[in-house]
Amino acid sequence: MDTTKYSFIKKKAIFVWLNIKTAGRGRRGRQWLSPFAGQIMFSFYWTFDPKKSIEGLSLVIGLAIAEVLNVQVKWPNDILFDERKLGGILVEIANHKNGMLNLVIGIGINVSLSKQTEISQPYAEVCEIDPDVERQTLLPKLIQHLYTRLNIFEKNGINTEFQQAWQSYNAFSNSEVKVLTEQGVISGIEKGIDERGYLKVLCGNKIQMFNGGEVSLRKK
Fold first, then answer.
1. pLDDT tens digits for 24-37?
2. In CATH, which superfamily holds the domain spanning 13-169?
3. What NCBIfam families does the entry give (predicted)?
4. Would you call 25 a catalytic residue per the annotation?
């Protein structure tokens, strides 16, 4: 159940802000809950030219949020502060109407959770960064920068400039990591992303590439 919805339209996108979310869904089908007024939780509808690749889109969203909050990103779609999860991103294809690729992008960011909130992993809150944070002030800043980053992505894709910017916020940059795949666990040194948004991991003297899908990334 979603309650207290606020929606508004910006050129090319429709944004919906939720005050409570009790039946949300995260990456790989995980449950995603939002207690009343404890998070910024919003979704928006965005259209892309189907001839263009949307690989790496979650990285674009993550970088935009990290730049506004001055926090870090973890490939492919987590926002971190002090090595704890601050927020997450989910991108889904809605339909292909009107000859366009229509996406729904969902974002959740912990702002100030009650002490009774139960989360099964270490988590961070924006109030640790800014004790005076107000959701009503922060949300427009996030949306404006998301809009800017998405428009740049449509024109330039995951170019060298973006790769360098993303790497500067990468929490696992040059760290020893484990990549959990369906075939097993692969260890190496995390080396950022390529022009498709794929993860680069140095295994011995060879770079291996990984895309999102059913792959998870952990520090060793």
1. 444 444 554 555 55
2. Bira Bifunctional Protein; Domain 2 (3.30.930.10)
3. birA_ligase, PRK11886.1-2
4. no
